[in-house]
Write a structure and sequence with these properties.
The chain is of the alpha/beta class. The protein contains 14 helices and 22 strands. Strands 14-15-16-13-12-18-19 form a seven-stranded mixed sheet, with helices on both faces. It has a six-stranded mixed sheet with strand order 9-8-7-10-11-21, sandwiched between helices. It has a three-stranded antiparallel sheet with strand order 5-6-22. It comes from Nicotiana tabacum (Common tobacco). This is Betaine aldehyde dehydrogenase, chloroplastic-like isoform X2.
């Protein structure tokens, strides 16, 4: 079928409620991963633009139209954005939490003492830097933007240079709904030139980051120089454990495919390690191969596309290198591992299943971020748990079994922040999202996402008219 021409709006940086050309006037080309053609460009911010955006954010916090707003007032802006936004659920959810925050802003604490009156005050943390990835660009941005605005912070969003255009459109929406200038600023550009100055800026009070572990380490190191708080979500190498008591084998097969191949495997929580009970391994893999034949690989703009391209040439080569290295180390490429024959252009990789894997192999240890599933078998629960936890990451885990008690045992045993029973990858705005170990710390989404952007103050008042009498009064000496 004919694919419509893609039209990319030409945007500048969104700073202080308006579009501004970067100080150095630099631009970055946008390359379509489906065609390998340049289809537009984005502005490239530098340290000078970061300074301007930070000052705009600070002014927003100092003005009554943003810095002194109630949660209910901020909720109106969030709902107005939701009415125009494709990822409305996050803004609507945090609009509700912003309203509820008004009643919790000043929370009395009973000390059972007549001479003291105390309360806990929840306030916006200040100017926050939000650095987001390319795999779900607008969605990942709203996971941070919506709670930051709900809390009353002024935010500076720095999306990945590989996928920025939808985040720039969010700037246009904010301008249209009249969000006060400086409350949200959007800086596109390269990490070293725009992201690094944002992290190290002395007037940015917090950094929230989703992305690679290597970049997360750099951010944490830079923020530590200013003792600046960070929250990090750094990906994973998540397991899906399938037991032989599963009633519907095809149901387990489909969730296994979805857990690893959705979004071309470019998912931080992808369950890319299949840990399969030995007694059903042969039949299960046969069913996987049959299902894979029905996965439509095409330009994402085609109807019913189920697997599109890898985001960039660099990531494409990285995925192919992982597959080649697995083969060199002695693993078997059961299927896939190459460019689909019918796709002559674009960064496409066939859905790939790798067997005969041992735990010392790179394919078992490292995050691929592509449509690659590696497989190991087990006999006992103890062996399955050991294999599941045999990773430096700790984002998510899945188990497929009809035995509820077994699932509960695995809930306690899995060393991850997210656990799925008889499914993989469902994500809900109301629930916390984040991991352990090298998957990072802190949580997006739910009430926990809002807490990321709040400063907690203890306020204690001495109410007695009597002297404290710790020291002897000079008048009585």
């Amino acid at each position: 079928m004919a694919i419509p021409n893609v039209r990319i709006p030409s945007r500048q940086l969104y700073i202080d409620g308006e579009w501004r050309e970067p100080v150095k006037k630099n631009r970055i080309p946008i390359i379509s991963p489906a065609t390998e053609e340049i289809i537009g460009e984005i502005p490239a911010a530098t340290e000078e633009d970061v300074d301007i955006a930070v000052e705009a954010a600070r002014r927003a916090l100092a003005r009554d139209d943003w810095g002194s707003t109630t949660g209910a007032q901020r909720a109106k802006y969030l709902r107005a954005i939701a009415a125009k936004d494709d990822v409305a659920a996050s803004f609507e959810y945090y609009a509700d939490l912003a309203e509820a925050l008004d009643s919790k802003r000043k929370t009395p604490v009973d000390l059972h003492l007549d001479s003291f009156k105390t309360y806990v005050l929840r306030e916006p943390l200040g100017v926050v830097g939000l650095i987001t990835p390319w795999n779900y660009p607008l969605l990942m941005a709203t996971w941070k933007v919506a709670p930051a605005l709900a809390a009353g912070c002024a935010a500076i969003l720095k999306p990945s240079e590989l996928a920025s255009i939808t985040c720039l459109e969010l700037g246009e929406i904010c301008r249209e709904v009249g969000l006060p200038p400086g409350a949200l600023n959007i800086l596109t550009g390269l990490g070293p030139e725009a992201g690094a100055p944002l992290v190290s800026h002395p007037h940015v009070d917090k950094i929230a980051f989703t992305g690679s572990g290597a970049t997360g380490v750099k951010i944490m190191t830079a923020a530590a120089q200013l003792v600046k708080p960070v929250t990090l979500e750094l990906g994973g190498k998540s397991p899906i454990v399938v037991f032989d008591d599963i009633d519907n084998l095809d149901l387990a097969v489909e969730w296994t495919l979805f857990g690893c191949f959705a979004n071309a495997g470019q998912v931080c929580s992808a369950t890319s390690r299949l840990i399969l009970q030995e007694s059903i391994a042969s039949e299960f893999l046969e069913r996987l191969l049959l299902w894979i034949k029905n996965i439509k690989i095409s330009d994402p703009l085609e109807e019913d596309c189920k697997l599109g391209p890898i985001v960039s040439s660099g990531q494409y080569e990285k995925v192919l290198k992982f597959i080649s290295k697995a083969k060199d180390e002695g693993a078997t490429i059961l299927c896939g591992g190459e460019r689909p024959q019918h796709m002559k252009k674009g960064y496409y990789v066939q859905p790939t299943i790798i067997t005969d894997v041992n735990t010392s192999m790179e394919i078992w240890k490292e995050e691929v971020f592509g449509p690659v599933l590696c497989v190991k078998t087990f006999k006992t629960e103890e062996e399955a748990i050991e294999l599941a936890n045999d990773t430096k990451y700790g984002l998510a885990s899945a188990i497929m079994s009809k035995d509820v008690e077994r699932c509960e045992r695995f809930t306690k045993a899995f060393q991850t922040g997210i656990i799925w029973f008889n499914c993989s990858q469902p994500t809900f705005t109301q629930l916390p999202w984040g991991g352990r170990k090298r998957s990072g710390f802190g949580r997006d989404l739910g009430e926990w996402g809002l807490e990321n952007y709040l400063n907690i103050k203890q306020v204690t008042q001495y109410t007695s008219v009597e002297p404290w009498a710790f020291y002897k009064s000079p008048s009585k000496v």
